[in-house]
Specification:
DNA damage, mainly alpha, about 220 residues, A/G-specific DNA-adenine glycosylase, iron-sulfur, 2 domains, binds iron/sulfur cluster, Endonuclease III, domain 1, Endonuclease Iii, domain 2
């Protein structure tokens, strides 16, 4: 039998997930930064490119462009070069729109309210969620391919193209996150989906969620 929706059961699973995260969480610099600008920009880059590429320009980018103003007024050639290295040169226009919007509308202070974040050009539901978890200490489960897959398998929900916008998936993912550590659990679940609960051949035997996961109960029993 898979999960029974008992509070104590999810408490136990979150503890297991926490232990897994302490050993396996990937330690990228943006995951430890408390600078809203740095976190937002890093997550913006990551939507279209991988962590390795972002790491390759990370220090140089934030040293040269330490805030929103420097993106507008700084070295355009270097900005082009770094975005090109990320393969994001075609998104430069959107980056500039995002920066101008934040400067004009919020005087450079990125808001925590979800509805305001979603008005910023280039900020979608996932970026808004991960920003709120990381900077605002809000429990706002980030739904991406990895976390949707975990929720679908764990709760036995059918997955389709709209699952990332599905409230049922958001609410279910919330059950797997400790409310007072949203950032840690958000990254735990993202990494668990990438390292363990892979699209093909999930490693259920070594997954901290296996005691109550519907998918695992079916294949391991
Ligand atoms: S037990 Fe298996 S299917 Fe369930 S979340 Fe873990 S890896 Fe995914």
């Amino acid at each position: 039998m898979c999960f029974e929706n008992v509070i104590a059961e999810f408490f136990y699973l979150r503890k297991r997930l926490q232990e897994w995260g302490k050993q396996h969480l990937r330690s990228y610099p943006w995951r430890f930064s408390n600078d809203p600008y740095e976190v937002l920009l890093a997550e913006f880059f990551l939507r279209r490119t991988g962590p390795k590429q972002v790491l390759s320009i990370y220090d140089e980018f934030f040293k040269t462009f330490p805030d929103f103003e420097t993106i507008i007024k700084g070295d355009k050639n270097l900005l082009d070069f770094l975005l090109h290295k990320l393969g994001l040169h075609i998104r430069k226009k959107q980056l500039i729109e995002m920066v101008e919007y934040i400067l004009l509308t919020f005087e450079g202070q990125i808001p925590c309210r979800r509805s305001l974040l979603l008005r910023i050009p280039g900020v979608g539901s996932y970026i808004a969620s991960i920003f709120r978890c990381s900077i605002c200490e809000c429990l706002d489960p980030p739904l991406d391919a990895n976390t949707v897959r975990i929720v679908g398998r764990f709760f036995n929900f059918p997955i389709n193209d709209s699952s990332r916008r599905n409230k049922k998936f958001r609410n279910a993912l919330t059950l797997l996150m400790e409310p007072d550590q949203p950032r840690f659990y958000a990254y735990c679940l993202i990494d668990l989906g990438s390292i363990v609960c892979k699209p093909h051949k999930p490693n259920c035997l070594n997954c901290p969620l296996n005691p109550a996961c519907c998918y695992a109960v079916n294949i391991l029993s």
